[in-house]
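Tokens for chain A. Residues wanted.
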């Protein structure tokens, strides 16, 4: 079998397919696990999501952590570590004269990563903290901000001066 080269149409399609499988498959897997756990008989002593009790959402704090905020916390922490690693690599390569041209590109990428981290990571972290330490009224701002993430990303990345000038 021939290997595809980075940048080729086949490589791009394969990469897109793999990202799609990951980004659709992980939530599907988590949802299936929650549905299976919900449908098990009571004798199995599992932490159930308790979706069908009184509402279509979690009714217990433990199940909320097991099936939602536990995963969100892991993802936010992972993203923080990856962001810090990228920042470290970019800062440590700052003095290398061979990388002068790519430094400018790296600086732009760093700002992009920082904006993404702030828009996506901090809002989810605030949502987790507000759930654990706040009241229902405290959840509203973070839920609204999370609901408007698509608009926020559009405003931050598309409606910027350089794009609007074109």
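Reply:
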């Amino acid at each position: 079998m021939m290997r595809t080269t980075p940048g080729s149409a086949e490589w791009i399609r394969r990469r897109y397919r793999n990202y799609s499988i990951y980004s659709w498959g992980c939530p599907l897997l988590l949802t299936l696990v929650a549905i299976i756990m919900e449908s098990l008989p009571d004798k199995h002593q599992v932490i159930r999501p308790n979706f069908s009790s009184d509402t279509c959402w979690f009714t217990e704090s433990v199940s909320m952590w097991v099936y939602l905020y536990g995963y969100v916390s892991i993802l936010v922490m992972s993203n923080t570590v990856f962001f810090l690693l990228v920042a470290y690599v970019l800062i440590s390569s700052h003095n290398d004269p061979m990388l002068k041209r790519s430094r400018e590109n790296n600086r732009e990428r760093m700002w992009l990563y920082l904006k993404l981290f702030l828009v996506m990571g901090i809002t989810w972290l605030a949502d987790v903290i507000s759930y654990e330490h706040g009241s229902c009224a405290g959840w509203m701002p973070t839920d609204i901000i999370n609901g408007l993430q698509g608009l926020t990303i559009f405003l931050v990345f598309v409606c910027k001066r350089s794009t609007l000038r074109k």
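Helices lie at 9-39, 61-92, 100-133, 136-147, 149-157, 161-165. The chain has two domains: 1-46, 52-165.
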